[in-house]
Write a structure and sequence with these properties.
With 250 residues, this protein is α/β, with parallel strands linked by helices. The protein contains nine helices and eleven strands.
Length: 250
């Protein structure tokens, strides 16, 4: 295990480092993007860590973008659903899950979603579109996808949460809008924000754990940590473990 140290910045923040309540350990993963093989590996790491060092209250938090771009979106959702049956889990919504649900009702959003990596998700559900589908084919694809996605997957996608807070930590897919209280954030920002959040040195009211904007290695700041390491492109799916005031990469 490698201890991860923050960068020095001029930032107004609490004197003490952020911490979780006593007895709580959180494992966080984001932006799996259909890489079910990497997800299985991370589950093995979590299980081994818990066997070696049990926690009174272990929570596994997934920060969204489970689908698209990678080869096995369907299998990834199956794994997450099965995981939730045996472990305490929190599933957050990513912008890709939102686009998929919008695509099922709006042909224009369907084509947008397809350009965002939805083609790989279609293929994982056994649907093979042409490269440039005309309107009639798009309508057929929407209908085919609606029939191909199991009810359990629809239930999973519709139940995703916009954010999760525990102790001094705020978990979210993309980030938060600086200057806006956490309880007043818009879902659009929680799912999509980039530069305004990434370039901010503000203290957001909690320490923010997020993904959405790929980095080569976990980007640790005094106000946030980005753990999206571009799994579908790099083969590197980051797992974060937090207990007390300790933040570790496993």
């Amino acid at each position: 295990m490698t201890k991860m140290l923050g960068r020095s910045q001029n930032l107004t923040r609490p004197t003490d480092p952020p911490r979780l309540p006593d007895g709580v350990r959180i494992y966080a993963i984001t932006d799996i993007h259909g890489c079910s093989d990497l997800l299985r590996q991370m589950f093995n790491v979590i299980d081994a860590d818990l066997a070696r060092s049990p926690a009174r209250d272990s929570i596994q938090v997934f920060l969204g973008d489970y689908i698209d771009r990678g080869p096995d979106s369907r299998g990834t959702i199956d794994l997450l659903i099965e995981r939730s049956k045996r472990h305490k889990t929190i599933f957050l919504r990513g912008n890709h899950e939102l686009l998929l649900l919008l695509a099922l009702t709006d042909p224009a959003r369907f084509l947008e979603w397809k350009r965002f990596g939805g083609l790989q998700t279609l293929l994982s559900y056994g649907i093979k579109p042409t490269n440039h589908p005309a309107k009639a084919e798009v309508l057929e694809l929407i209908e085919a996808l609606a029939h191909a996605i199991p009810k359990t997957h629809f239930d999973f996608l519709r139940a995703l949460r916009p954010s999760f807070c525990c102790g001094d930590f705020f978990f979210v897919h993309a980030g938060v809008r600086p200057g806006v209280p956490l309880d007043r954030q818009r879902d659009e920002d929680l799912l999509w924000i980039r530069d305004e959040f990434l370039e901010s040195d503000q203290y957001f009211g909690k320490y923010v754990v997020h993904g959405h904007s790929p980095v080569l290695a976990p980007d640790i700041r005094l106000n946030r940590i980005n753990i999206d390491t571009g799994a579908y492109a790099t083969g590197n799916l980051t797992l974060l473990s937090i207990q007390g005031a300790s933040i570790l990469a496993l």
